[in-house]
Amino acid sequence: MTTSVSPPDTVPKERTAGHRMPFWVNQRLGLLVLVIALSVLFGVVRPAFLDQRLVLFPLLRDVATLTVVALAQMAALSVGHMNLAVGRMAAFGAMFAGIGYDKLHLPMQAGLLLCLAAGAAIGAVTGWLIARTGVSSFVVTLATDFALLGLVSLMYSALTEDAAFTTRPAGVDALRSYSLADICAGPVCGSPAVPQLAQFTVLAMLGLGFLYGGTRVGRELLLTGANPAAAELSGIPTGRRVLLAHTLSGLLAALAGFMAAAGTGTFRASIGDDFMLPSFLGAVLGGTLLTGGVVSVLGTLLGTALVGVIRKGLDLLGVGLESLNIYLGCILLLALSADRIRTVVSYRKVVRST
Amino acid sequence: MSAVLLECHDLVKVFPGVRALDGVGLRLTAGSVHALLGENGAGKSTLIKVLTGVHSPDGGTLTWCGEPVRLRSPLEAARTGIGVVHQERNLIPGFSVAENITLQKPPARRGLVDHAAMTEPAVACLTELGVDLDPARPVRELSVAQQQLVEIAKALHTESRVLLLDEPTASLSPEETDRLFGVVRRLAGRGACVVFVSHKLEEVFALCDTVTVLRDGRSVLASAPLAGHSHDDIVSLMVGRAHTAAGMRPRTVDRSAKPVLELDGVATAGGHRDISLAVRPGEIVGLYGLVGAGRSELVKAVLGLDRVTAGEVRVHGSPARIRSPRQALHEFGIGYVTENRKEEGVFLEQPIVRNITVTVWRRLARALGFVPAGEERAVAQDLVDRLGIRITGLGQHAGELSGGNQQKVSLAKWLAADTRLLVIDEPTVGVDVRTKRAFHELIWDLAHDGLPILLISSDLAEMVTLADRIVVMTGHRVRGEVDNDRDYDRMSGRIIRLIHDRDEVRS
């Protein structure tokens, strides 16, 4: 994922008044600097951190998966909603892929499509309920989460012997372990640090970048999030946009579920259990507003990468799991405050020069 | 000579890119009603926020009864004795009248709020205002005017000696306004100082004795007696040049033309009965009534946001069943400039370019729904130029604009979409004299170029200036229709008689 991934055109994400604030207030730039600085720091303290195959490869595989999870959350946040069921939707989607491979003996691509369709369908049902009833997304997705928790466990115990689908068609193992080093153009091979699984992340980012940055529907999603009443009166079909946002959210969650399953090698009910917090962290650190109307595709990647780097680095420094979480919490708080401090300092500067 | 309560010298307050206050002097004396005037963006709201501790000043001095003070928070200002009633209501809807009044100084016993002891001080404050309200009633059941009085009572409870009223009459009926004036005079009589902020100069001259005029963050007239100034003096002080009433291009309406929009015996689920009206090309039809007459609700029902239960809506002569504002825009070319620009009109946290082009993305979109950013900006820039919207760039957020410019942005999106009928709801509420004038010319010119306009307004002067015919509505019914002869006194007489007739029928 260190390859340059830039969504087309300008992805809308200025949270501060861009025309007045200096460039270094830019949140994504700050994140990028932080990610690089921390990587260098960990690399200097523990040279093992920069081991491409043993450390960076699994790190980037996790980041690739969690970025898609965070993008799923971002899609819901864009209309000012949230999706508390991202993890369970991922499990739901992955379960269909598992059924497809185990019972129907589908090839890899067909199973992936089945997984995405299932995710999109459950997302659409959720979105429809929200748009139709007007009940808050918090409540509806929380209910969906519980319903899916029961359903997915039930299906696994009914269909499998040890609560996991282990049949893997050709190609899944390649996704798990192949990196760019396995793609060679003549004598030049890619970096062994970059997993091939990241292709899905790149595709998702390009797609969302185009949607939110370039298209009518993307703009309408954001305006629906910014002010639903004004959006409706401006002729935007807000109900359909809410439906679309949740469908997208479900689709991306299912993709993340597939990536997680491919990454670990088994399709099991526990996939996505730890998706919900990272989904909010990645999106919000990257500059997506919880209140809707502002998203950042690139920021979501950087936010997720920051969390991943911190976690891996502290792990290598020998910090135990419990204390690791304490450090992680503190560093995230600092990162979020740093952003606020930057904004305030630059605001004062502009004021003084006025 | 009465005592000086609050005085400030050379107040300065800076925001990024703008010196909102740049040397403001103000002296408030006990027992006076002080008018604070200025156009939108002149710094009135900022001054109020500085005086009530919301913003801390970047320069200048503030003294209370001769002693320098620093107000660090609204609570501190309230404890000092400065109360404020903002333009928007700031009560807690679920709490009772008494709870709201005593909110800042709740009677407490051993650290717990003493609910029983609340009623007495609340009733005392209400009686002082001459208001009869049940202190146990939840605030959400009260009318806007009653809520405003509760807020004034709340300020009395904290023993405010300076009371700031920001546009208190914006949503009041004439009777309610008179009542409010009585309360204000009584407060001044007791030795308080009431600061009255309003765009309606008639009210200012009827009520106030001293005046401060702000222009571009400076006080161009500081605490002078109002008696020495004429209406025109004040206006030219506010706008900074002699105020000339330029004539508008003459405009004639072809009364034989086929109506663009016609309502025939329309009834709605919201309670409208038997509403009939017609708007012809190039005609401005006024829909006049007091707040609560059901005018905006009628328009929203026609646009599909509420059910039309009987009668017929015809667009260009053929019956139309409009199910949503989207269909109204794309199929029938009807645009609705909403009354409530902050909640329904503009997207405050979004760039201006998106605010304007939201209605035309469908037209601009290429394959895969791609909207070329260049064309989008061209459309927006064209309208910004046409309407003279003052912005620093198309990427600026709409929320950073002044009220008048926000309203122009809200209008611009419909002009961008080339609508064939425009409904304009209360276009100049909270808009200053100059912008109001510019807006009137804009609406006039649109009609001159053949656009039919349905104008909703509670401002009778505005109606008489703009409308060709005025349809009068009260209680969700049409009470009559008058042809406008542009003579204010005659028109207001006829309209008030129409409204009055209905009261007689009812009683």
TrEMBL record, chain A:
Topology with respect to the bilayer: Multi-pass membrane protein
Organism classification: Bacteria, Bacillati, Actinomycetota, Actinomycetes, Kitasatosporales
Highest rank taxon of the organism: Bacteria
GO MF entries: transmembrane transporter activity
Cellular component, GO annotation: plasma membrane
Listed InterPro entries: ABC_transp_permease
Protein name: ABC transporter permease
Main location per the UniProt record: membrane
Pfam families assigned to the protein according to its UniProt record, in alphabetical order: BPD_transp_2
Keywords of this entry: Cell membrane, Membrane, Transmembrane, Transmembrane helix
Transmembrane helix in keyword set: yes
Ranges annotated as spanning the membrane: 29-49, 55-77, 107-131, 138-159, 197-214, 242-263, 283-309, 316-338
UniProt subcellular location: Cell membrane
Claim: Lipid metabolism is one of the keywords in the record: no
